[in-house]
UniProtKB/TrEMBL annotation, chain A:
Positions of transmembrane segments: 58-79, 91-110, 139-156, 186-208, 214-232, 239-258, 264-281
Signal peptide, first to last residue: none
Its membrane topology: Multi-pass membrane protein
Name of protein: ABC transporter permease
An example molecular function term from Gene Ontology annotations: transmembrane transporter activity
Keywords: Cell membrane, Membrane, Transmembrane, Transmembrane helix
Any Pfam family hit: BPD_transp_2
InterPro entries: ABC_transp_permease (IPR001851)
UniProtKB/TrEMBL annotation, chain B:
Keywords: ATP-binding, Nucleotide-binding
Organism encoding this protein: Cellulomonas terrae
Every ABC transporter domain range: 20-253, 273-504
Name of protein: ABC transporter
InterPro entries listed in its UniProt record: AAA+_ATPase (IPR003593), ABC_carbohydrate_import_ATPase (IPR050107), ABC_transporter-like_ATP-bd (IPR003439), P-loop_NTPase (IPR027417)
Entry GO MF terms: ATP binding; ATP hydrolysis activity
Annotated coiled-coil segments of the chain: none
A Pfam family it matches: ABC_tran
Domain of life: Bacteria
Length: 303, 505
């Protein structure tokens, strides 16, 4: 059963990891996007619809990324160009996405698709314990293994990453070297939305293999909180996402093994975990927060 | 234009071509003529001191040279060729580098990452290779900096060295230093001037913007004085001018020296402010004030010196009860009159931007003249006029909202309101920030009047000369500790500087 829970943690944590990595990029650039949940919903429906129409789940991933990017682009227009309040814009876009996906998703409820299936890695999946936990999953899970270190490398070892981090730390420093803060933030926010969209698509075309209203069920909000726990570090996002994945998979594993626990109580576990982590860490993680992001939280302080 | 150029070339026979030549530059912002017919010539291998009061047009001139503003009229030449930089990037391509007063480094990044931002060089950062280049350059220029250190953890002096190094590594031949010494300890100023001298010896041009006349005399080969946007004085070898002459050029009239009657500190009565082991957290949650013991007695002006961010702000806030102590005690002996305060950042802590000057005059906790249930505004206006007259800092018209005022004018409103009251404790952080020479002088007189009246005055300043001129004792802070209290009589700038840097006097 431990192996089942851990394998479930990896599978269930993957969507949160994509969304968390995306939000990390966005927030490193100075834009907080509470619409991540909405981008995931759009990604889930977009991915499901494209897969249903084309029969190709890889095109579905692309569709999910585009759908998520579109929502984040709207966010970027509002908060970067129009300088709207980032919290208000993000939340509004979440509710918009919730309604839009419910409306346009009706036709896809209970429709069958050619979903991703687990692809055991030859050889590695045979390892006792580790094999089923890590190497008997759908391709998006494997892609996520690579995505976290690659995004870390891009953020901390390339010029593009340096520009993103500078946009989140001190905009004057970017401007004085002739770069456009707006352009950098647009790119970071849209890239973040695309990753959240892929996370959403993972839920619908690899994890649940179905579409239903509000199927993301708070994973996007968990991802936003996770970015803070992970102190804006992609590698820590990876670890944190699997922790929340474990909390999520607990319910289904317990159910299949016949232990009677209240379903609703189990669904609350990830959120209780979120609250516990928030309470334990308190304001400590904020020491690692990008400076421009702190200005978003509190306009009067510009430490 | 051709004949003009020929004439200039003739005029320079035998002299090296000017690195930068500015001719008849003018710039107007609405009603304000910020620069008018300004000439400036910087030769290679020289240091050019640029002095002037706040609002004299120094920063407008620099921003035109650095491509931030486009001049309305006039021309600029680099190495004799006409140029018109349209952006800072253009200016840098011409070899003009600027070290901003507020330093444009990113605190969360390392020195190497900050320099990488300025040196476009491939899509990946290759930090190890860059670190080697930085080390090489830092040795060549005598600017010791650790490339892998996070800027957040560097002292102000180290940050400045990193920024200068960054400017040099981008190929600057003309380095503009905008008020580089205002936040440094005396030893750091000496080290900086060592670097400046080295740049000069290597044939670079340096423009040093400052308001400290001694510095201009010490290091500059040429001096230009701006007042009201115009060049008032341009001369070689500023060492030939006295302080009084340079001040007169800056201000437009003679300013008599500050008269300080040094009454012996009265017998130590009960202190008005008594800190015992005061420890407090800063805004980021770190310990910013560490076990400070300090007394301020009635009739005493205690100055606080220290490199920026050494705990001065927290000290003031703790003294005023605005910041809780985590251990130790704070006692204020309120024998009537209470405390008045000029905060470090009045815009953040003392001002409501949307309210008028007049409305601010009733925000000081004193009884307000009433009419029925409301405020008797005509009476407030009359009271304010008397106050403004008595304080003598000439506030902006009382109908103006604070958000429409410049930093210096906001400072005058805050100073008038606070220093116009008779309090038993006066806490003033950087009271002369943003003020011109005359108002700075007046503010110092006001603080001395409070002291003579028997109030205890605690005054933070980054200008050691100012503290030595007005304070009875100077408390020196370093990294949250109060590292020493020096009697001003016979105080020595260098030993205070050593304390500021954490050493022993």
């Amino acid at each position: 059963m431990i192996i089942d829970i851990l394998a479930g943690a990896v599978r269930g944590g993957t969507s949160i990891m994509y969304a968390g990595l995306g939000e990390t990029i966005s927030e490193r650039g100075g834009v907080i996007n509470l619409g991540t949940e909405g981008a995931m919903l759009l990604g889930a429906l977009g991915g499901y619809a494209v897969t249903a129409e084309t029969g190709n789940p890889w095109l579905g991933v692309l569709g999910g990324a585009l759908a998520g990017a579109l929502l984040s682009l709207t966010h970027a227009v509002l908060v970067v160009s129009r300088r709207a309040n980032q919290f208000a814009s993000g939340l509004t876009l979440y509710f918009l996405a919730l309604g839009v996906t419910a409306l346009f998703g009706v036709g896809y409820v209970s429709r069958q698709i050619n979903a991703f299936t687990p692809v055991p890695v030859p050889g590695l999946s045979e390892i006792p314990g580790l094999g089923p936990i890590l190497f008997d999953h759908d391709p998006l899970v494997y892609l996520a293994y690579v995505a976290a270190p690659v995004i870390w490398w891009v953020l901390f070892r390339t010029r593009v990453g340096l520009l993103v981090r500078t946009a989140g730390e001190r905009t004057e420093a970017l401007e004085v070297h002739g770069y456009s803060v707006k352009a950098v933030r647009y790119c970071a926010t849209v890239a973040g939305g695309a990753l959240a969209g892929i996370g959403g698509a993972h839920i619908s075309i690899a994890y649940a293999n179905s579409w239903f209203e509000n199927m993301i069920a708070g994973r996007g909000f968990i991802a936003v909180a996770l970015v803070i726990f992970a102190m804006w570090n992609p590698i820590r996002i990876m670890a944190g996402a699997y922790l929340f994945g474990a909390a999520l998979s607990l319910a289904s594993v317990l159910q299949t093994s016949g232990i009677a626990v209240n379903q609703f109580a189990l669904n609350a576990v990830p959120f209780v975990l979120t609250l516990v982590v928030l309470a334990v860490l308190g304001r400590r993680t904020m020491l690692a927060a990008p400076d421009e992001l702190l200005k978003v939280f509190d306009n009067s302080r510009t430490t | 234009m051709t004949t003009d150029a020929v004439a200039r070339a003739r005029g320079r026979v035998g002299k090296p071509a000017a690195l930068l030549e500015v001719r008849s530059l003018s710039k107007r912002f609405g009603e304000v003529q910020a620069n008018w017919d300004v000439d400036l010539t910087v030769l290679p291998g020289t240091v050019h001191g640029l002095i002037g009061e706040n609002g004299a047009g120094k920063s407008t001139l620099l921003k035109m040279i650095y491509g931030v503003y486009t001049p309305d009229e006039g021309r600029m030449f680099v190495d004799g060729a006409p140029v018109s930089p349209g952006s800072p990037a253009d200016a840098r391509a011409l070899g003009i580098g600027m070290v901003f007063q507020d330093l444009r480094l990113v605190p969360a990044l390392t020195v190497a990452e900050n320099i990488a931002l300025a040196l476009p060089d491939g899509p990946t950062l290759r930090l190890a290779r860059l670190a080697a280049r930085i080390t090489e350059a830092s040795e060549a220029y005598g600017l010791a900096v650790d490339p892998s250190a996070q800027v957040r953890h560097l002292s102000i002096g180290e940050r400045q060295r990193a920024e200068i190094l960054k400017v040099l590594m981008t190929g600057a031949r003309l380095v503009i230093l905008d008020e580089p010494t205002s936040v440094l300890a005396p030893q750091e100023v000496e080290a900086l001037f060592g670097v400046v001298a080295q740049l000069r010896d290597r044939g670079l041009g340096v423009v040093l913007v400052t308001h400290k006349l001694g510095e201009v005399r010490a290091i500059a080969d040429q001096v230009t004085v701006l007042r009201g946007g115009q060049v008032i004085l341009n001369a070689e070898d500023p060492g030939n001018f006295s302080d009084a002459e340079l001040v007169e050029a800056m201000v437009g009239r003679r300013v008599p020296p500050l008269a300080v009657e040094r009454v012996a500190v009265p017998p130590r009565e009960r202190a008005v402010l008594e800190l015992r082991g005061a420890t407090a957290l800063g805004d980021r949650g770190h310990v910013a004030l560490k076990g400070v013991d300090l007394d301020v007695h009635p009739g005493e002006l205690v100055g606080v010196a220290g490199v920026a961010g050494s705990g001065q702000k927290e000290l003031c806030e703790v003294a005023l009860g605005l910041r809780p102590v985590t251990s130790g005690s704070v006692r204020v002996d309120d024998t009537g009159g209470g405390a008045v305060a000029v905060p470090e950042d009045p815009v953040a802590d003392s001002v409501v931007p949307g309210l008028t000057v007049l409305e601010h005059m009733v925000l000081d906790g004193r009884a307000v003249p009433r009419r029925g249930l409301g405020i008797d505004w005509p009476a407030v206006g009359a009271r304010t006029a008397v106050l403004d007259e008595r304080v003598g800092l000439h506030m902006a018209p009382t109908k103006r909202t604070l958000s429409s005022l410049s930093g210096g004018n906001i400072q005058r409103v805050v100073l008038t309101r606070e220093l116009g009251q008779d309090a038993s404790l006066v806490v003033a952080a950087y009271p002369s920030r943003g003020l011109d020479v005359a108002n700075t002088r007046r503010t110092q007189e006001l603080l001395l009047q409070h002291r003579a009246r028997g109030a205890g005055v605690l005054m933070v300043s980054e200008d050691l000369d100012e503290l030595i001129a007005v304070a009875d004792r100077i408390a020196v802070m370093h990294d949250g500790h109060l590292v020493g209290v020096v009697d001003t009589a016979g105080a020595d700038r260098m030993s205070i500087g050593r304390l500021m840097l954490g050493g022993v006097a």
